[in-house]
Design goal:
The chain is an alpha+beta fold and 104 residues long. The protein contains 2 helices and 5 strands; from the N terminus they run αβββαββ. A hairpin with a 4-residue loop joins strand 4 and strand 5.
């Protein structure tokens, strides 16, 4: 009971809100593999869930095609997403190739 004779529900709600504010969101790493080369993400990014991190990996793959693909050679890359200190939980495969068939 508060000093005014009311239940302390406001105080309980504030405590729950404050406790949630301090729950750290997981940091996800996006490691890239191409041929025999591996680039390990040292910094990572913070997302609220595995699904959000997977969505970001998909967007990243599209950006790689859009900005790093000249159409002359093929791209075969893999993006593995893992939570800090954990094993990869999703793998995004990126294969892009342009074939030209001359008809005359």
């Amino acid at each position: 009971m508060s000093a005014f004779g009311r239940p302390d529900t406001d105080r309980q709600i504030n405590f729950v809100r404050e406790q949630r504010c301090f729950d750290p969101m997981p940091r996800y790493r996006f490691d890239i593999m191409e041929n025999a080369t591996s680039l390990h993400d040292e910094q990572g990014e913070v997302y609220g869930s595995h699904q959000e991190a997977e969505t970001e990996a998909r967007k990243f793959a599209v950006e790689m095609i859009r900005h790093g693909f000249d159409g002359k050679t093929q791209i075969r890359r893999t993006i593995e997403v893992r939570e800090d200190g954990g094993e990869p939980f999703v793998r995004v495969l990126l294969w892009a190739k342009v074939d030209v068939e001359r008809l005359k």
